[in-house]
Amino acid sequence: MSDFAVKAACLRIGVLVLSLLACKLAMAGTPGSFRGTVVEAPAGEPSAGWIYVQGRNGSLRRVQVSRARVIYGQAVPLNQREKAPKASLVFGVEVRVTAQQDSSGEWHASQVEILKLRNARMHAERRGP
């Protein structure tokens, strides 16, 4: 086998390895960050472990939050914070979500930052205890 043939074979193997790595990265999910307001789940849609976030442009995203780290932003007053931040993920809360989108288009949050609670308290009062 000539020196040229060996180099060509190594080049082909290198290209194949890089192609496989690129495919694996593409299948890992598309990371994203978006913000919006938590809205009620549409009728018939699951709500346990999920939130529905509506962006300013009207787009609605369903986000799995069961494994997400939920934190409060600096603008949320300490006296309005729950001990468990996930309890504050209710209608009207403004959030920033960091998530991965899987191949079926579902969003899986790694972190949810609560930015504002303003409408959440009013909604809780309307629903009662």
Tally the helices: 2
CATH C-level = Mainly Beta
- CATH superfamily, please? Nucleic acid-binding proteins
The main sheet comes to: 5 strands, mixed, barrel
The domain tally reads 1
Q: How far do the termini sit from each other?
A: 81 Å
CATH topology group: OB fold (Dihydrolipoamide Acetyltransferase, E2P)
- The radius of gyration over CA amounts to 22 Å
Order of helices and strands: HEEEEEEH
Overall shape: elongated
pLDDT < 50 stretches: none
Percent of residues in helices: 25-40%
- Strand residues, percent: 25-35%
Structural class: alpha/beta
Level-2 CATH architecture: Beta Barrel
Question: Averaged pLDDT, please?
Answer: 83
**Strand arrangement in the largest pleated sheet:** 1-2-3-6-5
**What's the number of extended β-strand segments?**
6
Describe this protein's structure.
- A hairpin with a 5-residue loop joins strand 5 and strand 6 (107-116).
- The protein has two helices and six strands.
- The model has no long low-confidence stretch (mean pLDDT 83).
- It has one domain: Nucleic acid-binding proteins (OB fold (Dihydrolipoamide Acetyltransferase, E2P), Beta Barrel), CATH 2.40.50.140.
- With 129 residues, the chain is α/β, with parallel strands linked by helices.
- Strands 1-2-3-6-5 form a five-stranded mixed beta barrel.
- It has helices spanning 3-27, 118-127, and strands at 30-39, 50-54, 60-64, 69-72, 94-101, 107-116.
- Helices cover 27% and strands 33% of the residues.
- The radius of gyration is 22 Å and the shape is elongated.
